Amino acid sequence: MLEVYMDDMIVKSHEETDHAAHLRKVFEQARRSKMRSTLRNAPLGSEQAKCEQALQHLKKALSEPPVLSRPDDEEVLYLYLSVASEAVDAALIRETTEGQKPIYFISKALQGPELRYQLIEKVALALVNATRRLRH
């Protein structure tokens, strides 16, 4: 799967073993299309090392379950909303010196007419659901 944004391209593979081949195909197509990249002058070895480091960091993060933390008074909190075809989710996050730490997770499976909501309606539903669940 390939997702292209204004400034970024993301290549996703179902299997880690297939990822190098998928990247090779994307770069070959980019060369044929004469696309330009800001990484053009970067040595491949350093980029490969950075990718490997990022992959190892991601593996470590995914292998350790997140521990919910308690926010301090007057601390700025962030609410991340996630919308999928069959569920809406929210994560309340605090920023620390070690990175972002989860405080609370909320998830709601969509049922009946909610499954047919437009994307913006699902985002609104995620926000309303989070607001109701996070009341003091």
UniProtKB/TrEMBL annotation:
The record's InterPro entries line, in alphabetical order, gives:
DNA/RNA_pol_sf, Rev_trsase/Diguanyl_cyclase, RT_RNaseH_2
Q: Which domain of life is it from?
A: Eukaryota
Domain Reverse transcriptase/retrotransposon-derived protein RNase H-like, by residue range, is 49-136
What residue stretch is flagged as signal peptide? none
Gene3D superfamilies xrefs: 3.30.70.270
Q: Which Pfam families match?
A: RT_RNaseH_2
- Tell me the protein's name: Maturase K
Organism annotation: Trifolium medium
